Amino acid sequence: MYAYVPDSAAPGAPLVVLLHGCTQDAAAYHAGSGWDGVADDRGAVLVYAQQRGANNANSCFNWFRPGDTARGSGEAASIRQMAAYAAREFGATGEAYVSGLSAGGAMASEMLSAYPDVFAGGSIVAGLPTGCAGSLLEATTCMNSGKQQSAEQWGDEVRAKNPGYSGPWPRVEIWHGSADYTVRPVNAEASRDQWVDVHGASAAPDRTEERPAGTVTEFHEVGGVPVVALNTVSAMGHGTPVDPSAGCGSAGAYFLDTLCSAEYTADFLGIGAGQSPDPDPTPSPDPTPTPDPTDPPEEGACVTSNNYEHVAAGRAEHRMGHAYTVGAGDDLGLWSLGVTTSVRETAPGYWEEVSGC
Length: 357
Prior knowledge:
Blueprint: E1 2-4, E2 15-19, H1 26-33, H2 35-42, E3 45-49, H3 66-69, H4 74-90, E4 96-101, H5 103-114, E5 119-125, H6 136-145, H7 151-159, E6 171-177, H8 186-199, E7 207-211, E8 214-220, E9 226-233, E10 240-242, E11 255-257, H9 261-269, E12 292-293, E13 302-306, H10 307-312, E14 316-319, E15 322-325, E16 331-334, E17 340-347, E18 350-354
Parallel strand pairs: 2-3, 2-4, 4-5, 5-6, 6-9, 10-11
Antiparallel strand pairs: 1-3, 1-12, 7-8, 8-9, 13-17, 14-15, 15-16, 17-18
Helix pairs in contact: 7-8
């Protein structure tokens, strides 16, 4: 976990959780995505989750594994704990949001679905709809050709995450390049249908606007509140739209020079609206710093036991023959009475492997 806390962030600041794409890391996403400028301008705290190579060899978030996307389980639980830690440690107790690119975008949709009571909104950038895949094979199929379902069926994928939850549901902005051949644009249309259905909005757009690099269509709830927006960026491939000439991010692999998606998203979701930043904030010595590691301090219970007992006690979970810590997702090795490891609770419900207690 990494965090960026600008000088403009005050107690009660909004929180944005950011999820990088495959082969990326937190530092690259901070440097390229343009969210640092949004944070500076709006007094928002940024938290970057970073995938571990032990969890996925390509550094992708495991959006296609049910054990990592269910509420209170796997990577989803870990990301949720990061948000809770940031709220507590940095005073980011305002509204929380989540955004991600590609696999991170798909995981952002899963987080919005699993934790609608935590996240007020988010954006899915070159990602996929909730529930598109339940295995790596299905994930590949979804990326290449999408999954054919009705809008109601897509909505059911979200509602199934929290049976009985009746709202309010998060507002969602979707970004996709019309020339994306890694994650086909049909997935953006499915995400649109999914969240429009969840909100009970009309399938007919309430507003369409041409932008310099593409088109946005908005869908409103009763009363005219915009709740879903689909941005199609003309001739853009797979990546996050940025605008370096305007001080928004930097062009590079998976950061495509088109427009500032971070700024548009912040406007649509209302990030920082109603905040009262310091009228004369002290400028940061570096306007685009690499995020500093903010690992939770070593405090709380420390337990040495076998992996079977860790799972039984809720400190770890069992996946495919191994035990993984709840929260951090550290691989403790075989789920066995014969393997002894030490874990420490560094935040409520967030366990990490340590060398010893």
